[in-house]
Design goal:
The structure is a single chain. This protein has three helices and six strands; from the N terminus they run H-E-H-E-H-E-E-E-E. With about 100 residues, the protein is of the alpha+beta class.
Length: about 100
């Protein structure tokens, strides 16, 4: 997998209450990923970019919500997220340390 595809697959971490709970209890990290990304691509991208061992990857297609605005109803775009389970004792720190 080339470096360009890694940055196309991983769009960034997804921070939510559920993601925080799964990180604390299940040693999982949640990422927003490209809609056409496969589980194997996500695994390789995380391992290569963060230098950690990945046990498994679960993906979820999230349907966009219908939002009401002054022109009627508009639909937010659908997106995909991946739950990445890291090997025991490994962690990804997204905080920038200086």
């Amino acid at each position: 997998m080339n470096q360009e595809r890694i940055y196309q697959v991983l769009m960034g971490p997804h921070i939510s209450e559920k993601a925080t709970i799964s990180a604390e209890l299940g040693n999982q990290v949640v990422f927003r990923v490209a809609k056409n990304a496969t589980k194997l691509e996500v695994k390789k991208a995380v391992e290569k970019l963060f230098k950690v061992n990945v046990e498994n990857v679960s993906t979820v297609n999230v349907k966009g919500k219908a939002k009401r605005n002054r022109y009627g109803i508009a639909k937010k775009p659908d997106w995909k997220k991946a739950y990445v389970r890291l090997a025991q004792g490994q962690d990804i720190d997204f905080a920038v340390a200086e």
